[in-house]
Amino acid sequence: QVQLVESGGGLVQAGGSLRLSCPASGLTLSMYQLGWFRQAPGKEREFVATITWNGGSTYYTNSVRGRFTISRDNVKNTVYLQMNSLKSEDTAVYYCAAPRSPYGLASYAVKSSYGYWGQGTQVTVSS
Asked: How confident is the model at residue 56 (pLDDT cuts 50, 70, 90)?
């Protein structure tokens, strides 16, 4: 059984930082391209960042590029999202996700490309 469990969310002031973690069980993350998504109240779940299975490339949505960093630790079987210079518009529930098939993922910004999801962790940024 595959489980992804996010942690590290919380309440932070604008300009602050948080680091989200997502360890996995039942899945060898080193074989998978991984993603972070977020969902604000009343909005659709949106793509935030992805990292390729070999860690060679990362991609970000425009609104977080330069502030957020996605990374992975294959020994710990964990994916991370370092979030700096947080803004009130970053407030959302953040989810990590993995596809059902290993290696490449063409449509990495599309929710339906991912078959495994965590339960989410709340990030609240106060202005």
From this structure: confident
